[in-house]
Hints:
Bound molecules: zinc ion
Number of strands: 16
Structural class: alpha/beta
Oligomer: single chain
Domain Metallo-beta-lactamase: 15-188
CATH superfamily: Ribonuclease Z/Hydroxyacylglutathione hydrolase-like
Strand content: 25-35%
Distance between the termini: 6 Å
Protein name: cAMP phosphodiesterase class-II:metallo-beta-lactamase superfamily protein
Shape: globular
Number of domains: 1
CATH class: Alpha Beta
Amino acid sequence: MELQVLGCSGGIGAGNRTTSLRLGDNVVIDAGTGLADLPLAELARIDHVFLTHAHLDHIACLPLLLDTVAPVRTTPVTVHASQSALDTLQRHIFNWQVWPDFTQIPHPDRGLLRYEVMERGDTFTLGELTLTALPVLHTVPAVAYRMDSGKASVVFSGDTDDHAPFWQAVAAVDNLQTLIIETAFADHEAALARASRHLTPQRLLAALGALPGGLDIRITHLKPFDHELIMRELTGQASAGLQLKRLLQGDVIRF
Ligand SMILES: [Zn+2]
Ligand SMILES: [Zn+2]
């Protein structure tokens, strides 16, 4: 299985794209601005969108995706997310005011957009791939995803504060190869990170100490103005043996 990083920045501007990861050719995790760079034919192939939560940086290109592929799709695009996130999308995005209600287009009986509830603990199987929603802590209901190819797993945190149930779920993944974990803010923004339920280098490193060594750890969602500082703070304080790298747009993780 291949996981391709379409966007992994905590902001925009000159080469930065917000969160979107593509699994194989027909699944994406989050639909931030990174999604917009795919060629038309590849956009048209997306059957499933799994959302970690409904914040704008993770959904910005979902409405535009549906509008773009509508003329060439004969089957719906299924959006998998918590009931709370789906309610947010329906109420605040697909409400005929911000954007058309694609659950009713092209026809109320066969909308292009389908919702499927995925709460923490739920799994969804697609061929050999199994996705499992894991608990995280954010300002709105949110999940992380475990992606299991049958050979190995990648866990992607989405947005989260430090959260013991998340770390317990990560530690329980028996075939974990790669952990993609957010660190949105530098340590000097600790108060803002707490208020917005994101991680800082110090708090991430404290939590990582309990995980087994040898894990491939990729840092995502760095705020653009502080990305170098965040990585310096992480690598400067990390204990020997921790394999920490910044996740980069264009990275392909095979598992
Ligand atoms: Zn968020
Ligand atoms: Zn975010």
